[in-house]
User: What shape does this take?
Amino acid sequence: MAQTLYDKLWNAHLVEQRDDGTSLIYIDRHLIHEVTSAQAFEGLSLAGRAPWRRSANLAVPDHNVSTLRTERIAGLAALPDPVSRIQLQTLDDNCKAFDIAKIPLNDLRQGIVHVMGPEQGAVLPGMTVVCGDSHTSTHGALGALAHGIGTSEVEHVLATQCLIQKKMKNFKVEVSGRLQAGVSAKDLALAIIAHIGTSGGTGYALEFAGEAVEALTMEGRMTLCNMAIEAGARCGLVAVDDVTLAYVRGKPLAPKEAHWAAAESWWKTLHSDAGAHFDRTVEIAGSSVRPQVTWGTSPEMVTSIDGRVPRLTDMPDETARQGLKRALEYMGLEEGMAITDIQPDAVFIGSCTNSRIEDLRAAAAVLKGRRISSGIKKALVVAGSGLVKAQAEAEGLDQIFLEAGMEWREPGCSMCLAMNADRLEPGERCASTSNRNFEGRQGSGGRTHLVSPAMAAAAAVMGRFVPVEALETLSPSSGGGA
Amino acid sequence: MRAFTQHDGLVAPMDRANVDTDLMVPKQFLKSIKRSGFGPNLFDELRYLDEGIPDADSSSRPLNPDFPLNFPRYQNASILLARENFGCGSSREHAAWALADDGFCCVIAPSFADIFRSNAFKNGILPIEFSSEQVDMLFGMMYETEGFRLVVDLVANTVTLPDGDVWSFEVDTFRRDCLLKGLDDVGITLQSTDAISAFEAEHAQRFPWLFEDVVL
Assistant: This one.
């Protein structure tokens, strides 16, 4: 019988299934970071249990690390915030106590867990992957079944190597044709969320398919799957193809030559069969997608750069009207205003959504030879990992950002969730390449507009949101909006 | 985990759609390595007028008088009435810990985000889905009647309204069983140790490259 990609991954990891459909799924890779693991290790200790399969685990600090070079060099003991220091130290202690592999803070390979994992080959096609972080959906880009989990589940996976799950339904988003120049995977992700809503994918495994998805690089596919959770789907998926295989080959933890042929032949089966049943399908024309900008406090509050903030009279019901009213008030925006009239005063380029080398190249291409607008008070560029940072520096991208007037920081989650010192002040408005525009997400009272790296860079130059493809005609000089 | 069988509790509102877990427990509290004590920080940015500091005493902080959960009539509520897609966003279990720590053992909404739903069950919190129309009716009755209570019966899968009306709800049978008995997942799964070991041996034969040690 024809199977979807999700069906195949599920079947290959099904340990047992109860009569009511509740199943045990075997977990191949467990990624660990400092924020959601301490309580799980504590639970393990209290119960006197050991990790079921030690070598399935790989840890890295990312959420709560400083991105300042001076603080990083000084090491953990010099971190000014004692609460953060204890949290990071606890990860070190737990990895030592349970003999779990960990990439240390100042290692070149350290980075955001969802950047580091694929980069090291710690995540491979056909794997089941979990992590105590909702953006674990990112790894579906490699044709892996990757779930974000809570801390109780982190403990459960450590203790049993399994996850208790019920099989989800299958949802395919088919994107035909090609994306236009200036339109990225981030724009496509936001356009899909605009279409199906932030709960459209709830209860589903969300497979992205079609010509426009096949044409994406691995980085682009990771951006797309990363945002699956913002559409409500715990995991996103893209079929394995030559792009995937070329990406995986040579990664440090990829299969050695002795196993490569066997691995490749299994991986080549990792696509949905013709005629496989999807419970829901949505079709989107790739050519219709324009650069996107969120205007509200949920990723579904989004429109294209050519669009306007909605009006209260556009809303279908009272809950939606109240939601819009509250979002506009929080965001400090007027109903019906043009997106191009919105003026950010901060820019953040980074996060597990958009901090890979391709993202930095896209932003640098816009910023090259330009200065950020005098209206931009804060502009951070935070590479996703030490390796991305080194690659960017080898290409001279760091100099482009610095000459434009931006800060070039050490790898970490940074201002995506603002656990560390990188955050917005109350009322500050940020063009951000991250994934969530929730109230207070980037700092209490901070206002987030989600965009692609190129769009964030264009907004930095002009001091307002502009269509990135029109920047040449809008920019009066290389001096930018100053 | 504490068992959940029947519960008679006061209902309080969280009257907005897409309540995310960042809103339930802001990021600064995620620095804690404990799993208890998050109750006073539930909805911290809405609940207080000042900014919350991790591990600080919240009892003398200025309360936001406009936030419904601070209204006297909703004090000691244990059932939260909410709108669609409750618990979306971050996987932080701190959201479920904070709800439980603040005395909530049941959330009623038209829909829940997947990860939150799972986290809730694992912390003795029952998420109940009713239709948008039913939830609208409950909001209406709750706003009209001070001291509006519901009786939730997980044995019978029903919610009884003050007027005696009984509404049925559906709940995952496995999760229901765990809640009724207060069972924790790890203990249940470890009863399948032999099955896991057998699967693992076969899996390692088929995919040997997955079982190599992580050498950094």
